[in-house]
Amino acid sequence: MKIDVLLGLQWGDEGKGKVVDVLTPGYDAVARFQGGPNAGHTLEFDGKKYVLRSIPSGIFQEGQINIIGNGVVLDPVLFREEAEALEKSGTDIRKILKISRKVHLILPTHRLLDAANEKAKGGAKIGTTGKGIGPTYTDKISRNGLRLGDVEKGDLSAYYAARDRHIKMLEAMGETPEYAELEKKWIDAIDYMRSFDIIDSEHYVNNLLKEGKSVLCEGAQGTLLDVDFGSYPFVTSSNTICAGACSGLGVAPNKIGDVYGIFKAYCTRVGSGPFPTELFDETGKTIRDLGHEYGAVTGRERRCGWIDLVALKYAIMINGVTKLIMMKSDVLDGFDEIKACVAYEIDGERIEHFPYSIENVDLKPIYTTLPGWKTDMTKMKSEDEFPENFKKYIDFLEAELQTPIAIVSIGPDREQTVVRNLKNT
Ligand code: GDP
Ligand code: IMO
Ligand code: MG
Q1: Each residue of 43-90: pLDDT tens digit?
Q2: What is the mean pLDDT of the chain?
Q3: What is the pTM for the complete model shown?
Q4: Which residues of 193-220 are buried (b: 16+ CB within 10 A; e: fewer)?
Q5: Helix (H) / strand (E) containing 345
Q6: Which of the listed residues 7, 18, 33, 38 should we mutate to test ligand 2's pocket, taking the one with most ligand atoms within 8 A of CB?
Q7: Which of 103, 106, 222, 315 supports an S-S bond with 132, CB 3.0-4.6 Å?
């Protein structure tokens, strides 16, 4: 059996949570493979809205196993908040949630370091989520990290050693770290985590595949935030791309089946960094208002702009996307015209590939304009009902991107999902 991967093709917040929830009934297990509580994945069903940060978005469907893989970084305090909220809402997560003992733990001092690093960068700050992601992955790569397995049996000596090292770093940066309260909550949360099923997830996932079970991997962030291929340095600190599913779960590349690439019918970005198609005018504001483009975790305003096909083609290439999923199509329902960036003009030259840098260059997006469909699509049940101009938009995108659009989302609710050709490509 192969493992399918669903991941973001833009700068995150494409709607991964919603679609993972919708696709989960077709799988035996769902697994997160990277990122941490910097993610905010929103699901809506039965008139209720849920935001997940570290727990996979398959958690609300019945019967599937949900796995937090080794590539994830976990904050025990935030994990506890999230898990307790789910338990309160009646979801029996202990039965279905498994956590890799190789996940790296976010310490309170990682969060303090995240804030101190941002402060030190001044105007060049990344605009991180402040969740300690960068410092935790830094410790992992520099072989100083703390894994769940290290504290699983109650010995916290490795924690104290890491904490003391962080304090020295913070003091060297001129900070006076206050961590006593945070530490107490953190240690309590470690105790709480010990009551969960902590596993060797690489063996578990490979055994599932051996037994013929199907697994869906849920990406966090998006390809343009990937630490290698995104708009570096304005990126997150993990591999958000398909390869990240291999290293973040311990599955071999030849085990990857379908790669679902998810994108919005337009584009957004939160935090600092270049964004070629960003709109600073009324149109950008209209997209933000209609799409409720505010961060699921931080509440920050998301920057909005037109769809960028140069960047999308690059993301499709890097990930080996087999099927596309287009989200938030309904947000453009009222527009007279829709624009799509088909090339960049950089220093007077037309460029159709995503270049080394899109920052500090004289970049002008070159647009194709398509007619809007001016129809409320939010209650449509099948693609036959789609207005002609929307069908033309889909045809245009499929021709440009050379990849089929398998699912079209027309609203935040589970039900507002039109499946076109999920099986037959
Ligand atoms: P994720 O991080 O990729 O899971 O995405 P987020 O949850 O951060 O952001 C997506 C937002 O769009 C959430 O508020 C969703 O409820 C909402 N959403 C998802 N799909 C659609 C859609 O097709 N139309 C509209 N209007 N909203 C959607
Ligand atoms: P989901 O999974 C959108 C952005 C931050 C910042 C940069 C680095 O919900 O799509 P970090 O805290 O990771 O060090 O921040 O990455 N970022 C996201 N933007 N969606 C996300 O996750 C993000 N996770 C991180 O805004 O620019
Ligand atoms: Mg999000």
Answers
A1: 999 999 999 999 999 999 988 999 999 999 999 999 999 999 999 999
A2: 97
A3: 0.97
A4: beebebbebbebbbebbeeeebbbbbbb
A5: strand 337-346
A6: 38
A7: 106
